UniProtKB/TrEMBL annotation:
GO terms for cellular component: cytoplasm. GO terms for molecular function: protein-lysine N-methyltransferase activity. It catalyses: L-lysyl-[protein] + 3 S-adenosyl-L-methionine = N(6),N(6),N(6)-trimethyl-L-lysyl-[protein] + 3 S-adenosyl-L-homocysteine + 3 H(+). PANTHER family: EEF1A LYSINE METHYLTRANSFERASE 2, PROTEIN-LYSINE N-METHYLTRANSFERASE METTL10. GO terms for biological process: methylation. CDD domains: AdoMet_MTases. This is EFMT2 methyltransferase. Signal peptide: none annotated. It comes from Falcunculus frontatus. Transmembrane segments: none annotated. Pfam families: Methyltransf_31. It comes from the Eukaryota. Residues 56-185 form the Methyltransferase domain.
């Protein structure tokens, strides 16, 4: 996966510009981070816990916006996607138009410095954005702290935060989000075996804001 490598902002833009061109050429939405099963896992959790369909949902680092389209198809009505790459938002707008999903709001936003109107969400979802921030060669520790602060600002008290990561273990994520969040559940992810040891290449957790 490309998200395993640390990409500066310009490289993300270039990657999304390529995906935008491909979408315009052949209608392909591009890469789904962590694959289809990661989206199914998130939607199943929301359905299992009977999260109301009018709950406000924020997709942090929405990329091509495919997760939001799947949420809309599942009946969720109050959906917002943000990304700091304008090319990503352009791509997700085209995907939204193709799917006819007018109830998805899309905005160019830097989550580390969110605008004031980005607040009061019932649910925040992250698939790989925290990973990308964690790999930033310039002050990754400071940026992770900013991320947690932003999350506290945009998510309502008792709101849910669903994170999918391929860089962090459960224990590490518990440590990163110990300020203001408590773990509710670890979601099952594919296991792999290496050198006789079994592990998870992907960690998926549900936190609740205190």
């Amino acid at each position: 996966y490309s998200l395993l490598s640390s990409l500066p902002n310009s490289s993300w833009d270039a990657a999304y510009e390529r995906e935008l061109q491909t979408f315009e050429d052949i209608g392909d939405t591009g890469e789904i981070w962590f694959g289809e099963e990661s989206m199914v896992r998130i939607i199943r959790w929301l359905e299992k816990h009977k999260v109301p369909l009018d709950s406000s949902v924020l997709d942090i680092g929405t990329g091509n916006g495919v997760l939001l389209v799947e949420l809309a198809k599942s009946g969720y009505m109050n959906l917002t996607g943000i990304d700091y790459s304008p090319s990503a938002i352009q791509l997700s707008e085209k995907v939204r138009e193709k799917e006819g999903m007018s109830n998805i709001k899309l905005k160019v936003e830097d989550f580390l410095a969110p605008s004031a109107e980005l607040s009061g969400f019932d649910i925040c979802i992250d698939k790989g954005t925290f990973d990308a921030i964690s790999l930033d060669p310039s002050d990754a520790v400071g940026k992770r702290k900013l991320y947690v602060g932003s999350l506290c600002r945009v998510l309502k008290p008792e709101g849910f935060f669903l994170i999918t990561s391929c860089n962090w273990t459960k224990e590490e994520l518990l440590n990163e989000f110990r300020e203001g969040f408590e773990i509710l559940e670890e979601l099952p992810t594919p296991k792999f075996c290496f050198g006789g040891r079994i592990g998870n290449s992907v960690t998926a957790l549900v936190f609740q804001r205190k």
